[in-house]
Amino acid sequence: MHRGKGMKFVGDSRIRSYEKNRIPKDYSEYPGKTEAFWPNFLLKEWIIGAIFLVGFLILTVAHPSPLERQADPTDTGYIPLPDWYFLQMYQLLKYEFASGPYNVIGAIIMPGLAIGALLLVPFMDTSKERRPFKRPLPTAFMLLTLFAMIYLTWESVVNHDWDAAKAQGEIVEEAEFDTSDPGYEIYMGQSCVTCHGENFEGTPAGVPLTGTGHTAEEIADIAVNGVVKDGQQTMPADAFSGSEEELQQLAEFLSTVTQQ
Amino acid sequence: MLNKIYDWVDERLDITPIWRDIADHEVPEHVNPAHHFSAFIYCFGGLTFFVTVIQILSGMFLTMYYTPDIENAWKSVYYLQNEVAFGEIVRGMHHWGASLVIVMMFLHTLRVFFTGSYKKPRELNWMVGVMIFIVMLGLGFTGYLLPWDMKALFATKVGIEIAASVPFIGEWIKILLAGDATILGAQTLTRFFAIHVFFLPAALLGLLAAHFIMIRRQGISGPL
C-alpha cells in the first residue's frame, strides 16, 4: 500500500485519486516494427481465428462425431481402440519387449521417461544458444521422438481392421414385433434363437435378422438349407425341425422382422 | 455516456491498471504474421487457447442434456446427437475440438522447443506448459468414456489396466479412478464425469492463469 505526504485517496479507500488521465506508453519508443496489442494487433489477429474457426466448423459439419452402440460389458469379443493420440502407446504395448512380463516398460517407464524428459528439458539444455541447428543434441532427440511417434501411430493405423471395428460397434436398431405371434413361439422353440437372439439382434454366432430384406420364401429356404457364402457353410442346414405348416408360420413372421 | 460510467467505476475501483496489464503491451515484429508470414507459428499457442474456450463453451451446453448414469448416458448422447436442434453440431465441436486442442498444443510445444524459448528465464513457464499438456491428455482420456458406447467402455478398461500396472500404487490409482477393484461401471462413469467437468478443468484454469501471467511478466522470447 502506498503512503506518503501529498497523496490523495478516493474517500477512505486505498484507491489513489488521480488528477489527470494516465496516458498509455507511446509505442514509437520501441525499436522495430512493433505495434500495440490492443487494439491494432488484435484487429488483425481475429482474422486468423476466423479462418481457423471456418475450417473447424467445416470439419464438424462434414464429419458428424461417431457414436457406437451402448456399452455392453458382457460382449468380451469387442476389440477396443483408444483415441488417435493414444494410438502410439497402444502400438508400443503390442511389441514383445514392452508387453506381457515387460508391460511396465511399455506402459509406465517409456512414457514416463518421455514426459519427464520433456518437463526437465530447460535443465538439461542449459546453453544460451537458441537456434535448433546450433544445439544438435536436443534437436536430434526431439526429431527422433517425433519420428517414433509418427511411426508407431502409422503402424497402429495400418494394422487395425477398420471395417471390423466399424461393424463391431454399429448401432443395431431394435426390431418391433408381436411376441404373441405363433411364429415367435416357433422361433423361440427352435434353435434359431440361440444364434440370432431373443430380439433378432444377433450374437457372435449369428447375424442380426433385422433389415436383411429377406422374403418369407427365402427365409423358409434358409431355415431348411442354411446359408452358403463364398463356398462356406455360414449357417448349417436343417436348423429347422418341424412341420411344413410351422415353417410357413415362422417364415411369414420373420419376414415382418427382416423387412424392417 | 459509456465513458462517464467507466470513469465513475475507475475512480472508485482503479480498474485501468487491471486491463492495461492484460491488453497494453507491444507485439514485436518477429511474432507478427502481418510483417513476416512465417511468424504464423507463433499463433499456435493462441489458437490452442481459442479451441480451449470452444471446448469449455460447447462442454457447458453438452451438460444441459448429458446424464452421467449407465442407464441413460448413452441414450442422452443419442438423443442429443439425433433429436436436439444443433445437438450434432455442438457435440461435433466438442468431439473434434478435443483432437484439435491436442494438435494445436503439440504444434505450440514444438514451436517453443525448436525456437529454444524454454531457456532461462522461462523454465517455469515451460514446466507449467508441460503440465497443461498432461491435464489435456487427462481430459481426453476421461471424456472418451462419457458417451458410454462400446469403444468408450473397452478403451477405458485398457486405460485403467495400464494405470493399474504402475508399481506399488497402481491398485490404488485403479480404485480411485474406477471406484471399485474389479467392476468398471456406474461408479466409474460418475467419477470420470466429475474428473472431466470439475477436477481437471479447475486444474487447467489454474495452470492457464499461471501460464499467461508468466508470459505477460516475461514477454515473448526474442527473435532467433
Automatic annotation (TrEMBL), chain A:
Intracellular or extracellular location(s): Membrane
Annotated GO MF terms: electron transfer activity; heme binding; metal ion binding; oxidoreductase activity
Keywords, ordered alphabetically: Electron transport, Heme, Iron, Membrane, Metal-binding, Transmembrane, Transmembrane helix, Transport
InterPro entries named among the record's database cross-references: Cyt_b/b6_C (IPR005798), Cyt_b/b6_C_sf (IPR036150), Cyt_c-like_dom (IPR009056), Cyt_c-like_dom_sf (IPR036909), Cytb/b6-like_sf (IPR027387), Cytochrome_c550/c551-like (IPR051811)
One Pfam family from the record: Cytochrome_CBB3
Stored PROSITE patterns: CYTB_CTER, CYTC
Chain ranges passing through the membrane: 46-63, 102-124, 136-154
Membrane topology: Multi-pass membrane protein
Domain Cytochrome b/b6 C-terminal region profile: residue ranges: 27-154
GO cellular component: membrane
Domain Cytochrome c, chain residue ranges per copy: 178-258
Alphabetized PANTHER family for the sequence: CYTOCHROME C-553-LIKE (PTHR37823), MENAQUINOL-CYTOCHROME C REDUCTASE CYTOCHROME B_C SUBUNIT (PTHR37823:SF4)
Protein's name according to its UniProt entry: Cytochrome b
Organism of provenance: Bhargavaea cecembensis DSE10
Gene that produces this protein: petB
UniProtKB/TrEMBL annotation, chain B:
Matches recorded under Gene3D superfamilies: Cytochrome Bc1 Complex, Chain C
GO molecular function per UniProt: electron transfer activity; metal ion binding; oxidoreductase activity
Signal sequence bounds: none
GO biological process: respiratory electron transport chain
The protein's required cofactors: heme c; heme b
CC per GO annotation: plasma membrane
Protein name as it appears in the record: Menaquinol:cytochrome c reductase cytochrome b subunit
Alphabetical list of SUPFAM superfamilies matching this protein: Transmembrane di-heme cytochromes (SSF81342)
Subcellular location: Cell membrane
Key words, A-Z: Cell membrane, Electron transport, Heme, Iron, Membrane, Metal-binding, Transmembrane, Transmembrane helix, Transport
Record's subunit section: The main subunits of the menaquinol:cytochrome c complex are a Rieske-type iron-sulfur protein (QcrA), a cytochrome b (QcrB) and a cytochrome c (QcrC).
Role: Component of the menaquinol:cytochrome c reductase complex.
Organism: Bhargavaea cecembensis DSE10
Transmembrane regions listed in the UniProt entry: 39-66, 96-114, 126-146, 193-215
Keyword Phosphoprotein attributed: no
Topological type in the membrane: Multi-pass membrane protein
Domain of life: Bacteria
